[in-house]
Structure formats: structure tokens, C-alpha cells
From TrEMBL:
Cross-referenced InterPro entries: MCP, MCP_dom_sf, MCP_transmembrane, Mito_Metabolite_Transporter
Entry GO terms, CC: mitochondrial inner membrane
Pfam families associated with the record: Mito_carr
Bilayer topology term: Multi-pass membrane protein
Location of this chain's protein in the cell: Mitochondrion inner membrane
Organism expressing this protein natively: Extremus antarcticus
Alphabetical GO biological process terms: transmembrane transport
Record family assignment: Belongs to the mitochondrial carrier (TC 2.A.29) family.
UniProt protein name: Mitochondrial 2-oxoglutarate/malate carrier protein
Ranges where the record places region Disordered: 1-20
Solcar repeat segments: 28-117, 129-220, 228-318
Transmembrane spans: 234-254
Keywords carried by this UniProt record: Membrane, Mitochondrion, Mitochondrion inner membrane, Repeat, Transmembrane, Transmembrane helix, Transport
Ranges annotated as biased composition (Polar residues): 1-12
């Protein structure tokens, strides 16, 4: 990541300057990053959704059982197909789209705008924009976006985990809207923000790894290697994907458990909150449980980062030259 001020396109890679017209207006320049972030995220989600479904199933397998053998991604994928259809690997895709139209759009849009503010202030003070500046921008954008978009996360987890229940107990959600309505009716509006704390923390960790580390890695690769732009993007995204996965997986695990919902034999919720969930998982399943499915999670995060940034770059170039 370059430390020079005046480059606000870490989230949405740089592209040719806009031609004069409506797209060069201040309003368009502020709105454009949000729209591009949503659309590029939807493209990536369509491609990566099967890995996300498998990841959720792995995290929920063996819940409450210490030392339970971890299922492999291949075996889980085969089981999903055997129990239903190949299209079940795309379970919750409508919720995934809603997530990108909310969280995906907001995190990239906010990051772009926050970074622009940071750069303006840095220029006025005659200093360079630092990695710490970008880190703060990424953490803030991720946390704010996740807090607003949590209902989409809840719907996504409910739809993806529904197939794990006995057929008689499945909700069989027809769409993301159906899931949102039924969850709110059964659990109240608060139910749509179930697991919001670990979701926000996970989002902050993910965005820190994805955006801050991506920018830093790409800057170093550009400075010290002769790799092409595409190869720099791929390598930097892979590095960023690792750090995003490493920092965020434990919180993603807790978020998945909390948002799955469900009640115990006493009729009360299985978990009282994030700390209760973490303590029970640690006591009953061991510390390594928090990193079960890391390979699948990494395979989901890294390509999603590459695809999102690649699509964002090309979409912005296309729009700017229209």
C-alpha cells in the first residue's frame, strides 16, 4: 500500500479518470463506490457460495461434542448433494445477495469515503497517509456496515443451516424475505440482530485483513517485484485472504452458532450471548474448534477478495469511460 496521500482507491482499485458528465459530479463520485461494491460483491458471492455453505455445515457439525471428528469439505459437499440437489450448494444465495446489497455495498463504500476524508486531512497537514490510517478506515467501515446489515447475516445462516435439521423440523424458507419475516415474527426484531457483536467484530477483523493488508501487500509487490498488475492483485489478495481468515474465523464461528438459533431441552436459548457461546464451545469442544474449517474458510475468503476487487476495478473503469 502506498503511503502517499491522494490515493483513495484501495477498496476499489484505481481506474482511468472519469469523463466530464453526470458521472463526474460530486454526488455520483460519492455514490459510485457503494454501487460498484454491491455489484462486484454479488458476482463474487455467486461463485463462492458453495464454499460458504460447506463452511457453515462444518462449523455446526458436532456442536456440543468435545473431540468430535472434523468433517472434510469434500465429504460435507458430497453429503449435501446426496441429501438433496446440487443446487443445495447455493442455499441461501438470495440472502447472500442481500448481504452484498447491504454489508458488501456499505463496507466498500464507507471505506472509500473514510479514506478520502483521511487523505484530505493528511494533505492539509502536509503528511503522508499511513498504514495505520487505512487500518482505522477499514476497521470503522467494517464495523459500521456489519451493524447495519446484520439481518441479512441472520437470514443467510438460517437458510444455509436449515438443511441440517430433520425434515420435519425444517423451516423450508422460500426466500430471504420469507426468512426475515418468519424470524422477526418468532423472535422479534431483536432476533434479526442475533449474533451482532461477533458479526461486527468479525467484520472489523475481515476488513482489516482484506483492505489494509491487501493495500500494503500490493504496494510492496509493486515496489519490489516485476509482477503484472493482475498477478500483483492475485498475490496481494491471497495474502490478504489469509490474514482476514486468521483474524476473523473465531468470531465467524461464534456468529454462526449464535445466529443459527435454537433452544435447549429446557426451552431456553442454547446460548445467552457471545461469551457464553465461546465458553461452552471451549469447554465442550476444545480450543481448536474455533479454527475448524479454516481451509474452507480461507478458500472462500481469498477468491472472494480477488473476484470482488477485480470486478470492482473493471466495473469502475467501464462506468468512468461511459
Amino acid at each position: 500500500m502506498s503511503d502517499t496521500a491522494g490515493q483513495s482507491q484501495d477498496a476499489l482499485p484505481s481506474s482511468p479518470p472519469a469523463k466530464s458528465g453526470i458521472l463526474s459530479s460530486p454526488i455520483a463520485q460519492n455514490v459510485l463506490p457503494f454501487g460498484i461494491g454491491a455489484f462486484s460483491g454479488m458476482i463474487a458471492t455467486t461463485i463462492i457460495q458453495p464454499a460458504d455453505v460447506v463452511k457453515v455445515r462444518i462449523q455446526l457439525t458436532g456442536e456440543g461434542t468435545k473431540g468430535a471428528k472434523a468433517a472434510s469439505p469434500i465429504s460435507v459437499a458430497r453429503a449435501i448433494v446426496a441429501q438433496g440437489r446440487v443446487t443445495d450448494l447455493w442455499a441461501g444465495l438470495s440472502a447472500g445477495y442481500l448481504r452484498q446489497l447491504s454489508y458488501g455495498m456499505l463496507r466498500l463504500g464507507f471505506f472509500d469515503r473514510f479514506l478520502a476524508i483521511v487523505e484530505t486531512r493528511a494533505q492539509s497537514k502536509g503528511r503522508k497517509v499511513t498504514f495505520a490510517d487505512r487500518a482505522v478506515a477499514s476497521l470503522s467501515a467494517g464495523g459500521l456496515a456489519a451493524g447495519i446489515a446484520n439481518p441479512a447475516e441472520v437470514a443467510l445462516i438460517r437458510m444455509q443451516s436449515d438443511g441440517m435439521k430433520p425434515k420435519a423440523e425444517r423451516a423450508n424458507y422460500r426466500s430471504v424475505i420469507d426468512a426475515l419475516v418468519r424470524v422477526s415474527r418468532a423472535e422479534g426484531i431483536r432476533g434479526l440482530w442475533a449474533g451482532s457483536y461477533p458479526t461486527i467484530i468479525r467484520a472489523m477483523a475481515t476488513n482489516f485483513g482484506q483492505l489494509a493488508f491487501f493495500s500494503q501487500s500490493k504496494s510492496l509487490l509493486k515496489e519490489h517485484t516485476n509482477l503484472s498488475f493482475q498477478n500483483q492483485t492475485f498475490a496481494a489478495s491471497t495474502i490478504a485472504g489469509f490474514f482476514a481468515a486468521f483474524f476473523s474465523l473465531p468470531f465467524d464461528f461464534l456468529k454462526t452458532r449464535l445466529q443459527r438459533g435454537g433452544k435447549g431441552p429446557d426451552g431456553k436459548p442454547v446460548y445467552r450471548g457471545m461469551m457464553d457461546c465461546a465458553i461452552k464451545a471451549l469447554r465442550e469442544e476444545g480450543p481448536l474448534r474455533f479454527y475448524r474449517g479454516f481451509g474452507t474458510y480461507f478458500v472462500r475468503i481469498a477468491p472472494h477478495t480477488v473476484i470482488t476487487l477485480y470486478c470492482a476495478d473493471n466495473l469502475k473503469a467501464l462506468v468512468m469511460n461511459t
